[in-house]
Amino acid sequence: MDSVLFAKSVSVLSDRHMQLPVADLSFSPCHTLEYGAGCHTEVTNQQCDLGEEREEMTPMTLDVVIVGAGPTGLMLACELGLVGIRATVLEKLPSPTGLSKALGLQSRTMEMLDHRGLLERFSAGRSAPPFANFAMFQLNLHTIPFGHPYGVVIPQSDIEQLLEARARELGAEILRGHEITGVHQEEDLVRVGIVGPNGAYEERCHYLVGCDGGHSAVRTLSGIGFPGLGPTVIARFADVTIGEEAKPLLKHAVPELHDQNFGIARTETGNFAIVPLGSGITRVAAIEWDQAQVDRDVPMTLDELQQALLRVIGTKLPMSEPRWMTRATDTSRQAERYRDGGVLLAGDAAHVHFAYGGMGLQTGVQDAGNLGWKLAAQIHGWAPPGLLDTYNTERQPVGKRVLMATRAATALARPGEHVT
Fold first, then answer.
1. Which residue from 38, 173, 265, 399 has the fewest beta carbons nearer than 10 Å?
2. With bands split at pLDDT 50, 70 and 90, how would you rate the model's confidence at 235?
């Protein structure tokens, strides 16, 4: 039976069609928690009320441990929760940052959320432009025959907040301030070394999923190669307060914006972008080719961005109160394999590329949609032989195409006479 037929067989996963039970968290003094395939443990009220006390709990074998509480990891926790699998999500940051790399959802991701009855949570009251940008070219989505010919403007921090709320509704355990330090695979389980707020401890699980970004500890500790291409571009981003005097400066320096306070433009020396984020905050970006790479560990400064703007658009901008600043490159890498025994990779842990088109978040969430039901089938015992391997055979080619698309977009966006 192929994965398409199996995907249809689990259409009941959509909570639009049925409400699956969520674990009762109001425990008596001593209660048994079920963890899927015959795994359970007895815990006390105090241990259940205090997530940080995990280090002192009796060892057990969890079904799935997800590393990384970004959109990919949280979406995977939601998918597993729909079939009664209570994922444990480990996030090394002690709290959400409230900052956003990505700023929106695209059609295919919205289709997934719609299938789960969740799209309204993400789209209500938000801007939904009927176009997308590929390099410097604006694409009219209404010319494509599918159900969601538009994007939704929503900061990544809001996406994570909504997905976390849904994951918790479905019983997921999300532990912040917990960082993995070791991965050891045995015949039918994975042992994971972790440092939490109360010190070092170990978890055992049937499956460990790395959703922990481009510098994935899961991938590194598992010895999975990450080959690819080095950088040719350096981009500088900042979320700042922009002074009123910026508008006439931009009108003169970047006429491609057509007197608007948002947009992206290709200049003679680079790319420039400006996007209002609300609450008086604006994202400003300067993207350059053929510049010396800088030490990514050295904190970026506002003056560094101003100097980049001077090179790209010929002027500095009145900016203050930087809330977030970062650099990015077009480094493109892909994991040699998305599955290694009981270890799997998804999202940026499996593939990294330049930010053009906002495809990173979309691809990661779609990785989770492909993986979730297959993991559930494996854990519940109704998966045919080889089903879980189809996650790699189906999603790795998708990741490869995304890397190719972003490299093509970067080439088209490069200043010069090669593009008209």
1. 38
2. very high
pLDDT in tens, 253-312: 998 888 787 888 999 999 999 999 888 999 999 999 988 888 888 999 999 999 999 999
pTM for the whole structure: 0.84
Name the region of 50 (left: φ>0; alpha: ψ -120 to 50; beta: rest).
Answer: beta
The number of residues making up the chain comes to 420
Least confident of 148-152, 318-322, 348-352: 148-152
Tokens standing for 224? 């999975």
212 and 72 in contact (C-beta within 8 Å)? no
